[in-house]
Amino acid sequence: MRYRTSTFRSRLGSVLDHDTAPPACGPESGHTDGAGGTTLITDLPYGPKAAEVAREAVAVALHGAEAVLLDDARLITSELATNAFASGRPPLVLCVDRTNPTTGGLEVEITVTDGGCSQPAPSSPQVPGEEAESGRGLVIVEALADAWSLTTGAHGTRAWCRLSREVRSSTAST
């Protein structure tokens, strides 16, 4: 059985979506259950430790994945958790879905939800000034993720992204 995180979205909420299709949530998505996929769901502390706990949880969920994918996933998750703490309200929840699509490879979906915020989602990630000490989170997510979205509302915020990797065929050199 697969479990998914969800949030209640206010009619006053806003959406920032950078995907050609919404996240899939069912058997028709091409995901497999059992040995083909795993889901990790965990509460994150509402505080400065949220990013650290999120990075550790992703490392557990993606154990054995290639180092580049793991590094990208940990960085993205850290940024999403930090944004949830900085801009949202408790509870903070992390969901990591790891699947091996029937076409091969590895697909990872990372979702961070929080209890909502009063700020609407930006129309696009704003690149901060060179001297700014923060504000690069969504720019990083956009650069590393294959697809992502941000839905904000007074009763819940949902940040989602997908990372996909093809299986590399190994060839023996002679």
From TrEMBL:
<keyword id="KW-0723">Serine/threonine-protein kinase</keyword>
<keyword id="KW-0418">Kinase</keyword>
<dbReference type="InterPro" id="IPR036890">
    <property type="entry name" value="HATPase_C_sf"/>
</dbReference>
<feature type="region of interest" description="Disordered">
    <location>
        <begin position="16"/>
        <end position="38"/>
    </location>
</feature>
<keyword id="KW-0808">Transferase</keyword>
<dbReference type="InterPro" id="IPR003594">
    <property type="entry name" value="HATPase_dom"/>
</dbReference>
<dbReference type="GO" id="GO:0004674">
    <property type="term" value="F:protein serine/threonine kinase activity"/>
</dbReference>
<protein>
    <recommendedName>
        <fullName>Histidine kinase/HSP90-like ATPase domain-containing protein</fullName>
    </recommendedName>
</protein>
<feature type="domain" description="Histidine kinase/HSP90-like ATPase">
    <location>
        <begin position="51"/>
        <end position="159"/>
    </location>
</feature>
<dbReference type="InterPro" id="IPR050267">
    <property type="entry name" value="Anti-sigma-factor_SerPK"/>
</dbReference>
<dbReference type="Pfam" id="PF13581">
    <property type="entry name" value="HATPase_c_2"/>
</dbReference>
